[in-house]
């Protein structure tokens, strides 16, 4: 997909994220807006996965560790044709499978996530299976910066490099804010790049809200043969809506009618 | 009395080897636990079918879930105390909720580690795992049940927890006059004059001794002392106790419990688990909600700072012995 096409996709996805969060009166607005460019590039450019090959053992896998930003995932999966977009009208409604975290009841979702620190260990197992079976599929996960302190992530970082899983790529949606405040104040995880390098990962940093730069970075996978790849995607929480950007209250804030109209007009 | 066989853990290792030899998708995942899981020979014979994650139980279960999702038949092997406490959230979400067909193998379960103390005991695992949807919970009593449980778990393709102890167990409690000299693995081909109801099936309790005066329902390594209690009651008091190996704690065999309860005789459950939330309370719940009012007793480890000592000493202290169980039976029958 061209740079302009990817940018246009991101704009449309942002509108839809806001539309369904507004209708459901629930959702993780800020984080979904910060990570959507990453999902856009993964599903429209990097990964070999679509509704036709989703049952195939050779597909690329995406497991969203920061499951709470499910609105971003649902919007992209609908666009890719995994299910009719009208299904999202039921988001967070009684008996809907389109709940506030990914579940395999929704076509296109690989694993049930939501508890933090779970995506990466599962990815390690899946990537190991690819190595055992000499298959070429790749495994991707999206980590939130707030979930980095989960010990299970660090267990998985160790095992991924031990097993030389260069078919595994973890992308950090690094918007630097979590529900209580700035990561640096809640629990400082810096220097992240140095830590990951010392854990045996190949690390790249990129503007995570620039689809073209993300594409160029992900085109280089694996960054080093024999090492898992880690992308520090510098993003902005609430990206694309001026009054939401870098504002903590939009972590799971839901826009009012006026705010919604303003946001949509900014994304027109 | 039944012939002493191997530790169920050893049967596990041998059975896993037999599975791995014919199926390269059989994978063991260990957390520096291959020695305590008797899997060192497995690792030597099948180096490409064992994944070591180091002492990191959360990752153990997550990695196992990922392997299972990619088509592997995965046995995640770790001491039951760590597997079902440290990695409980991974069991709940990554295995059960996501429906990844991992065989969770809790080794050296209950108070097998004896004097190593409470950190190494798993007296909570039935309770917590019973409360998780989409998870089968199994504690085989003897070598035969162990072998069958492993074979059936591998074929199940659903999340399942198997719990094994370290102590040598009978080859087969049903064949109490086993004539083989050297303890050996049974093959699963039952040629003895044994009724099919005694064969092993997940979710179906196994009657290992008939009796009409009362029933002992045990699970795992407590079936043996229940059996010993029944023999003692028969020889010393002429009392005939039925003994059930309720190897599958979830889903529980309500049909069998109903049949037993309908006889109107006392029921005693015996488990190597805290009396809160385990087999006994599961049976009690069924009985109460289905209008059964049998005399009833739950035997297990009480809710207290567990006494220190070996597994045998802990069992003796809490009267999970042939003598102790027989004594409770006489009380209920009085």
What would your notes on this structure say?
Chain A: It comes from Arcicella aurantiaca. Chain A: Keywords: Thiamine pyrophosphate. Chain A: Residues 18-255 form the Transketolase N-terminal domain. Chain A has one domain (3-266): Thiamin diphosphate (ThDP)-binding fold, Pyr/PP domains (Rossmann fold), CATH 3.40.50.970. In chain A, a hairpin with a 2-residue loop joins strand 4 and strand 5. Chain A has helices at 3-24, 29-46, 70-79, 119-132, 151-162, 183-186, 192-198, 211-218, 257-266, and strands at residues 61-64, 139-144, 168-174, 177-178, 181-182, 202-207, 229-234. With 268 residues, chain A is α/β, with parallel strands linked by helices. In chain A, the strands form two sheets. Chain A has a five-stranded parallel sheet with strand order 1-2-3-7-6, with helices on both faces. A two-stranded antiparallel sheet of chain A has the order 4-5. The longest helix of chain A is centred in the N-terminal third of the chain and has 22 residues, at 3-24. Chain A is globular, with a radius of gyration of 17 Å. By secondary structure, chain B is of the alpha/beta class. Chain B has two domains: 4-169, Thiamin diphosphate (ThDP)-binding fold, Pyr/PP domains (Rossmann fold); 203-333, Rossmann fold (3-Layer(aba) Sandwich), CATH 3.40.50. In chain B, 37% of the residues lie in helices and 20% in strands. In chain B, helix 10 links the parallel strand 13 and strand 14. In chain B, helix 1 packs across helix 7, helix 3 packs parallel to helix 5 and helix 8 packs across helix 12. The two termini of chain B are 27 Å apart. The interface between A and B is medium-sized, with 32 and 30 residues.
Order of helices and strands of chain A: HHEHHEHEEEHHEHEH
- CATH top-level class of chain A: Alpha Beta
Q: Count the strands of chain A?
A: 7
Which class do the helix and strand fractions of chain B yield?
A: alpha/beta
Count of all domains of chain B: 2
Radius of gyration of chain A: 17 Å
**Which percent range fits the helix content of chain B?**
25-40%
List the strand order in the largest sheet of chain A.
1-2-3-7-6
Quote the distance from N terminus to C terminus of chain B.
Answer: 27 Å
- What do we call the CATH homologous superfamily of the largest domain in chain B? Thiamin diphosphate (ThDP)-binding fold, Pyr/PP domains
């Amino acid at each position: 997909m061209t740079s302009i096409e990817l940018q246009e996709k991101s704009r449309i996805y942002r509108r839809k994220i806001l539309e369904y969060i507004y209708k459901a009166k629930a959702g993780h607005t800020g984080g979904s807006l910060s990570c959507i460019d990453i999902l856009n590039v993964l599903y429209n450019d990097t990964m070999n996965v679509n509704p036709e090959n989703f049952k195939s053992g050779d597909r690329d896998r995406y497991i969203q560790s920061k499951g709470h930003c499910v609105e971003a995932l649902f919007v992209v999966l609908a666009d890719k044709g995994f299910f009719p977009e009208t299904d999202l009208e039921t988001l967070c409604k009684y008996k809907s499978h389109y709940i506030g975290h990914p579940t395999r009841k929704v076509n296109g979702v690989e694993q049930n996530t939501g508890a933090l620190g779970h995506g990466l260990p599962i990815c390690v197992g899946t990537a190991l299976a690819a190595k055992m079976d000499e298959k070429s599929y790749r495994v991707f996960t999206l980590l939130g910066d707030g979930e980095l302190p989960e010990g299970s992530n660090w267990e998985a970082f160790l095992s991924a490099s031990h097993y030389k899983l260069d078919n595994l790529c973890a992308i950090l949606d690094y918007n630097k804010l979590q529900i209580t405040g700035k990561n640096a104040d809640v629990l400082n995880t810096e220097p992240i790049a140095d830590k990951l390098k010392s854990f045996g990962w190949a690390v790249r940093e990129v503007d995570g809200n620039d689809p073209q730069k993300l594409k160029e970075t992900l085109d280089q996978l694996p960054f080093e043969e024999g090492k898992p790849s880690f992308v520090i995607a510098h993003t902005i929480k609430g990206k694309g809506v001026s009054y939401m950007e870098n504002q903590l209250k939009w972590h799971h804030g839901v826009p009012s009618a006026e705010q919604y109209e303003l946001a949509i007009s900014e994304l027109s | 009395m039944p012939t002493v066989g191997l530790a169920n853990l050893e049967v596990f290792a041998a059975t896993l080897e037999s599975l791995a030899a014919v199926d390269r998708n059989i994978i063991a995942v260990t957390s520096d636990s291959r020695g305590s899981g008797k899997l060192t020979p497995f690792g030597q014979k099948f180096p490409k079918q064992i994944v070591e994650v180091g002492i990191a139980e959360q990752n153990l279960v997550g990695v196992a879930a990922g392997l299972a999702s990619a088509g592997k038949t995965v046995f995640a092997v770790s001491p039951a105390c760590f597997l079902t406490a440290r990695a409980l959230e991974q069991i709940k979400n990554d295995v059960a909720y996501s429906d990844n067909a991992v065989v969770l193998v809790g080794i050296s379960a209950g108070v097998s580690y004896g004097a190593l103390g409470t950190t190494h005991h798993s007296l909570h695992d039935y309770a917590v795992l019973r409360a998780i949807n989409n998870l089968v919970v199994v504690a085989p009593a003897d070598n035969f049940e162990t072998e069958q449980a492993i074979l059936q778990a591998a074929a199940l393709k659903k999340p399942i927890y198997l719990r094994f102890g370290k102590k040598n167990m009978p080859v087969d409690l049903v064949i109490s006059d086993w004539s083989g000299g050297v303890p050996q693995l049974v093959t699963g081909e039952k040629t003895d004059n044994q009724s099919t109801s005694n064969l092993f099936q997940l979710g179906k309790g196994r009657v290992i001794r008939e009796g009409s005066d009362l029933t002992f329902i045990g699970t795992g390594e407590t079936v043996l002392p229940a059996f010993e209690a029944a023999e003692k009651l028969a020889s010393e008091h002429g009392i005939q106790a039925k003994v059930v190996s309720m190897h599958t704690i979830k889903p529980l065999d309500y049909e069998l419990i109903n049949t037993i309860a309908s006889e109107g005789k006392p029921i005693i459950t015996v488990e190597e688990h805290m009396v809160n939330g385990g087999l006994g309370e599961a049976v009690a719940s069924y009985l109460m909600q289905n209008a059964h009012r049998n005399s009833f007793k739950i035997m297990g480890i009480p809710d207290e700072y567990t006494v220190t000592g070996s597994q045998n000493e802990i069992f003796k202290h809490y009267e999970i012995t042939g003598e102790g169980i027989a004594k409770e039976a006489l009380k209920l029958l009085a």
